[in-house]
Design goal:
Two copies of one chain form a homodimer. By secondary structure, the first copy, chain A, is of the alpha/beta class. Chain A has two domains: about 70 residues, Arc Repressor Mutant, subunit A (Orthogonal Bundle); about 110 residues, Rossmann fold (3-Layer(aba) Sandwich), CATH 3.40.50. Chain A is about 40% helix and about 15% strand. In chain A, the strands form two sheets. Chain A has a seven-stranded mixed sheet with strand order 6-7-5-4-8-9-11. Chain A has a three-stranded antiparallel sheet with strand order 1-3-2. In chain A, a hairpin with a 2-residue loop joins strand 6 and strand 7. In chain A, helix 1 packs across helix 4. Chain A starts with 17 loop residues before the first helix and ends in a 16-residue tail after the last strand. The interface between A and B is large, with 103 and 101 residues. The structure holds a DNA duplex. Chains A, B: This is Redox-sensing transcriptional repressor Rex.
DNA sequence: TGCTGTGAATCGCTTCACAGCC
DNA sequence: GGCTGTGAAGCGATTCACAGCA
């Protein structure tokens, strides 16, 4: 137990702010779309609009990576795609295991965006013996008993937990003991992990509760400002920050 | 219930920081677990540990809601559960529609945590005519053509988008035009919405990319500190901030 | 001229440390 | 003595505004 204040300046090593790291994937997606349309260059203004952030923030973000733009012109799309991919570590392939092949786990396994960029589903693992061998998304499900062997054989360092809440902590411990150092947790539980292991979580009901809070507030205000009333087609605004991204806390730092 | 409620929330629910709102669901979950175990009171220290945050932050968070604790003692569990639920708007029922009943949409529909607290799946909507009438999680899927009618008939103000990226913006516009003012977006796209509509997004591949960044960094450092090597059973640390929660940007404000 | 890159100002959240009350 | 509630300090992220360069 870490009682002794292990004060670590959070983001040590390379000085890219967490908030910036969390936005890089957004930029990358926007850039990839531009690349597919063979657009050669973009201005910070255009790219920011496509990524749903403001341009000053984007320029500041990029300034942490280096000086990849050209004054008076903008950014070379292909070059930026490469630089960001490299920065995010997507130029290599990351084998990933998914543990817990229920509804959600199966949906994740089938999710296309997985393989698309740098990630590969190396194995599916479930505790139900009846699932063993059954293929999901073309990959045979393996039993939890073999978890350690699977992790080691495939050199997996990223694990996805999609088990029920009750099983998550134990699965987490086995993953970590077997060598996994990054975990994406879909189970509605707080995971305890040793230093050096990163955890990110995705939780539907938390997101809904946050929306409900704001929804309730809207209902309470009701017609404070003059406009409002007709949300339909009219003015549209690029949402400044959608959801859990622009976030900061991100990962538990090593 | 009701121990020290001598005070009224002097600071009416105006200025609750987004970061605090994003943590309330976490506290609520921890408190609910305590409640089920019939624990009558908790200290900020204990509750903070259960929620995976630090105790000063928790106390500060609660101070925005009012003075619900008792000095020298702690917080009354039942009373706090009620206060936080009320603050989050969970004392009322929120009908929710899910649009896009593919793998993910179906998994969401089946997700238990949905109904558990304040939310009810009012309808499932899909563009595929072949899906129409087919029950998923006991609820018959309806066709997109009837989207507007469904929203209005059920008084839905929260929508979940689980469609492919290409369809998301259009679905979003129809939801908003029909009266939805909060959207949870699972499609990997930036949604444009009018002022007054909140959007939160959940994106698997973004989370993975953020993990990959840190993973790559770890591989680069390698052997900076002496220990390492045996991540197994030893020291375990309550992750300070797991994933997209402790976040701030949250919702696009009205 | 136009757009990037960045110091400086600002904002908001977190953390500290202790006063206040049980 | 113990634990909450909170002013104040600290810190990171955002935003501003403009210098610098193609």
């Amino acid at each position: 137990m870490a009682t002794g204040r292990t004060h670590r300046p959070a983001t040590r090593s390379r000085g890219i702010p967490e908030a910036t790291v969390a936005r890089l994937p957004l930029y990358l997606r926007a850039l990839t779309a531009l690349s597919e349309r063979s657009v050669p260059t973009v201005s910070s203004e255009e790219l920011a609009a496509a990524a749903g952030v403001n341009s000053a923030k984007l320029r500041k973000d990029f300034s942490y990576l280096g000086s990849y733009g050209t004054r008076g012109v903008g950014y070379d799309v292909e070059y930026l795609v490469y630089q960001i991919s490299r920065e995010l570590g997507l130029t290599q392939d990351w084998p990933v295991v998914i543990v817990g092949i229920g509804n959600l786990g199966a949906a994740l396994a089938n999710y296309g965006g997985f393989a698309s960029r740098g990630f590969r589903v190396a194995a599916l693992i479930d505790a139900d013996p009846a699932m063993a061998g059954k293929p999901v998304a073309g990959i045979p499900v393996q039993h939890t008993d073999d978890l350690e062997k699977i992790i080691e054989d495939n050199g997996v360092s990223i694990g996805v937990i999609a088990t029920p809440a009750g099983a998550a902590q134990q699965v987490c411990e086995r993953l970590v003991a077997a060598g996994v150092t990054s975990i994406l947790n879909f189970a509605p539980t707080v995971l305890s992990v040793p230093d050096g292991v990163d955890v990110r979580k995705v939780d539907l009901s938390i997101e809904l509760q946050i929306l409900a809070f704001h929804e309730q507030r809207k209902a309470g205000e009701e017609s404070a400002s003059g406009d409002g009333a007709h949300p339909a087609a009219a003015a549209r605004k690029e949402s400044a920050d959608q959801g859990p991204d622009g976030d900061v806390p991100a990962v538990m730092p090593a």
